[in-house]
Amino acid sequence: MNNLKVNLDNIRARVARACKQAGRDASEVTVLAVSKRHPVERIEVLNRLGQLSFGENYVQEALAKIEYFRDREIQWHFIGPLQSNKTREVAEHFHWVQSVDRIKILQRLSNQRPANLPDLNICIQVNIDREPQKAGALPEQVRELVDAALDLGGLRLRGLMAIPMAASVLHDPSGSYARMNSLFQALIAEGIDLDTLSMGMSADLEAAIMHGSTMVRIGTDLFGPRPDSGAD
After folding, report:
1. What is the pTM of this model?
2. Per-10-residue mean pLDDT for the chain, 232 residues long?
3. 50 Rama sector, left if φ>0, alpha if ψ -120 to 50, beta otherwise
4. Residue 229 maps to a domain
C-alpha cells in the first residue's frame, strides 16, 4: 500500500504547484478521493494518511463502505447520477450530494433528510458543454435550481459541479472551466453564499484550479486503475 502514500503526496504537490501558479493558497482546494469500486482497505490507508473526503457513484456499494467506516472521520460525497428511488438512502447517509440536476431530486432530498442530521451539502451539476449523453442542468437552468435549493429545508447549497468534455485535439477543457467559473462568480455577485466549485480530475486538475476550482475529484491518480476497469 506504500504506493498510496506516494500517490497522495504527488496529488498534494500538484495541487500546491497549480495553486501557486494561479496565485492561490493550496488550502483553498480540497482533494476528493473518488473511491468507487475500490476496496475498503485502500480507503482506510488513505484515510490514515489524512485524506478525509471520499466520493462514491453507486449507492449500495457506498452504503457498505459508510457502515464499515461509521466511527471514522470521513466526509462522504455522492457524485454519481441520482435516481429518485435512491434519494432516501443518500439523504440518510451522505454528507454531500454533488450531482443534483433536477428540482424533483432536491425536493426528495429535502423531505428525506433526517431532522437529527446537519443540513445536506448540495452542489448543482452543470452540463457546461451541453453534451446530450451527459447528466447535469444546462447553464440557463441553474438559477431555477439554485432558488429551489435555497428555499428547501434540510439542505445547504454549497456550489456547482461539472464534468466538462474530455480534452482532445478539438477541445480544450480550459474554456469549459472558465465558463463554469463565470457562472459561479455571477451567482456570488447576486449575493448567493456559495463556496464550492467542484471541477477537475486526474488529467486536468491544473487547468481546473487555474479557473477557480475549489475541489478536484481524483480517482486513478490516487488509487490506481479500478479493479473492474481493465486499465493497466
Report:
1. 0.94
2. 89 98 97 96 96 97 98 96 96 98 98 98 97 94 97 98 80 89 98 97 94 97 76 36
3. left
4. no
